[in-house]
Amino acid sequence: MGSLPAPASAECAPRPQGRATVAASDLAPLFSAQRRHLDHFFDRLDMAQAAAFAQALLDAPGAVFFTGVGKSGIVARKTAQTLASLGLARAGFLAPVDALHGDIGALFPGDVLVLLSKSGASDELLALAPCARAKGAYLVSLTSAASGDDCPLAAACDLNVHLPLQGEVCPFGLAPVTSTAIQMVFGDTVIAAIMEARRLSRDQYASNHPAGKIGKTLIFKVKDVMKKQNELPLCKEGDMIMDQLTELTSKGCGCLLVVDEEHHLIGTFTDGDLRRTLKASGPAIFSLTVGEMCNRNPRTITAEAMAVEAMEKMEAPPSPVQFLPVVNENNVVCGIITLHGLVSAGL
Known about the structure:
Layout: H1 24-44, H2 47-59, E1 64-68, H3 70-85, E2 91-93, H4 96-99, E3 112-117, H5 123-134, E4 138-143, H6 152-155, E5 159-162, H7 179-197, H8 202-207, H9 212-219, H10 222-225, E6 234-236, H11 245-250, E7 255-259, E8 265-270, H12 271-281, H13 290-293, H14 307-314, E9 323-327, E10 333-338, H15 339-344
Parallel strand pairs: 1-2, 1-3, 3-4, 4-5, 6-7
Antiparallel strand pairs: 7-8, 9-10
Helix pairs in contact: 2-7, 3-7
């Protein structure tokens, strides 16, 4: 398997003596060659064929399956997963050999089967194509061989998209290190066009990415990660600073939310404010109230705001803060969101 380490055996292929190195001067011409090959693809891609392929995916009445062998199969699987992640169509990968041994049962009339092959002559795909056609599927081939005798797969399909390939960036011109890049770029670009055509919204996209940073950024609201009720470090304007030290330190917020009798926010008092007051006032701090020293113009946020917006607001100039009071439209405190809480939630 390509992902397994080579066994330490005398039977392994001999390696050149000395340590192999790759210098910037070695890489530069390879990247330049890769750029030329990609430019060749972009300059010669038939946009009418590309549009026909995109339309076939948009109009598919059933599922869309992708298939391929070897590295093209890996690209096919990735492209299927990207399309499936949008929630715009049922999409999946169909392994060609498994399909010929029963998995073709997943295909129904009206489904689309996209077959990726650099050569357009992969035996496994040529064996699969007539079987898929017999099931009533619409067949699309993506090949780097032009249609004709050199590309039998194109003749077996309803639509062929030619992906122009000038060459592979490989010392032997054989390893699929450019053709797979072209396949990936083509598939992802067509999917981006489908997203625009279907007017996919951020909320729709987020609904299919509930985990990980993408989902949390698009789904989590302040109300989902804020502290509330008994977790809030509340105090009154007339409370003595020294009487509120326990409240200041025990709730893990690093601050006090100063409120009136109806929980309207008056201001905030932080552990930093405590240190500055102690340094400036000395023993006089024992006679000072929270209301005398609190910040009466703190940054706030609403419970319905996105959690990522809260993080951006915390980090905004002129100086970052570690928390935001959460208030409603009447400036009544309903929670507090902290930077630690956002980080703990994976944001």
